[in-house]
Every structure is written in C-alpha cells, then in structure tokens.
Amino acid sequence: MSAADEIRDLLFAECWRLDRATPGTKHVCTNAIIELDPSGTRAEVRSYFLSQQQFDDFLLQPVAAGRYLDTCELHEGAWRFVHREVLVDFTGDTSRYGGSGVDA
Amino acid sequence: MLSAADEIANLIYRYDEHVDRGRFAEAAALFADAVVEYPTRNVTVTVTGAHELEAFLRRSDRVYDDGTPRTLRYRTNVSVDVDDAAGAATAFSFFTIIQAAPGFPLQIILAGATHDGFVLADGRWRFVDRRVDVRLTGDLSAHTPEATP
Fold first, then answer.
1. What is the dihedral of CA B63, B68, B71, B75, to 10 degrees?
2. In this predicted model, what pLDDT tens digit does every residue of A52-65 receive, in sequence order?
3. Which of A90, B9, B54, B61 pairs as cysteine with B28 (C-beta 3.0–4.6 A)?
4. Residues 33-62, chain A, touching B (beta carbon < 8 A)
C-alpha cells in the first residue's frame, strides 16, 4: 500500500470510530487532499466531513458539515494522527448531537 | 511520492476547495489550459481557460459576507484512469453540494457527475477538459446570485 492509501485508511478508520462512538450518526469523509512531505514520513491532509443522523423520531438529515485539517506522521511503520483541527462550517438540527456541543 | 492517480485526485479536490472557500481565481487557474462544458437540457455552456471560468463562477455562485458561497462540494466515487505511456489521464467522479446560509438551513442543493481529462506537462498534471453533468437539483435560491437592479 502506498502512503496515500494508508493515510486514507487512517481517515476512514477514524470515521468508523466516530460512528461507533455516536449511535444514529454517520460520518462521511471525502475530498482528502494529501500533501506528502518529501521525507515521506509526514503529511498534511485536508478533508471534508458530513455528519448525518437518523433516529426513530428524527428523519435522516445532515446535521453538521465542515473540514478536517490533519497532520499525520509515519511512526514505527504505521501512519497516525499527530494533530487534527476540526472546522465546523455549517450545522443543521444539532438537538440530538453529542454531549458537549458539536463533536464532528 | 504520490502516484499519478493521487496527484490527480488532489487536483480535483483542490478545485472544490478553492470554490468552496470563495477563491474563484485560484479555482479557475487550475483550468488555464482547459475547456469546461456544462450541458443543460437545451444548450451546452462551454467555458475556455481561466478567465472565462472565473467569470462563469462569479455569474453562477452567490458570495456571502464571509467571502464564500457557503457550500461544500462532497466529491466521491473518484475513479482515475492513467495512461502512463501517453502522459494522459481521465477521471470520473460524483459531486453532492450542500449549502447553508442565513435563513437557508443546511441542505443538499445539487448533485451530479463529472468527467475530467488531464495531461502531464512539465512534470505536472493539468486539467485539459471537464464535463459537468448536473443530474439532481434542489433549492438553488440561495446559490444563484441576486439579480442586480
């Protein structure tokens, strides 16, 4: 697998982790611009997310939309996040969203 | 080192990012050597080069006080086909555009598919053509620029 493939896997795994942590919520992660450092061991990654929710009494709808600004590093053969900035650009009905405000 | 397919995907996403941030000149500059077609039911709008594309974006996207069109273009199903021998590539993708604006709740406003062509020139991939097929439209009232009196 290339570094870019491994970095995308890292992004998508984080979406799955968020989904498991927040029932009724789906995190879509797209538009990953991967800027790989010449060293090959560090990357700046900018991506979009869309959080969608649905419950028995809550129709499927987008509830938060924004961007992830990530710094990733290759550490002992595996890529990992060393920094993530979450920019929430737009919110919908967040009445069912997480405890402490918007957890994108 | 990124593969050709990854470089091309980056290029596609950079255009989306520039437009969503309201950086229309930077977005259009990626198409300096390209032709972009927007087929509609009756007529195909053809835009050639950066200058025309920037003008097209300013005509078709309302810009809000924060300097952006208050959109995000979710680009998915990106499939890149690289012809190494020819130094050329094509790509197919879907887009789903969401918007939220004052008095306009977060919603999907437009969805469709994009066909792109690229060439490798001086070691860099560049757009040479694009066709944007809008397939589904929602409420575009907050997207279209307000008519100037």
1. 120
2. 999 999 999 999 99
3. B54
4. 33-36, 40, 46, 48, 50, 62
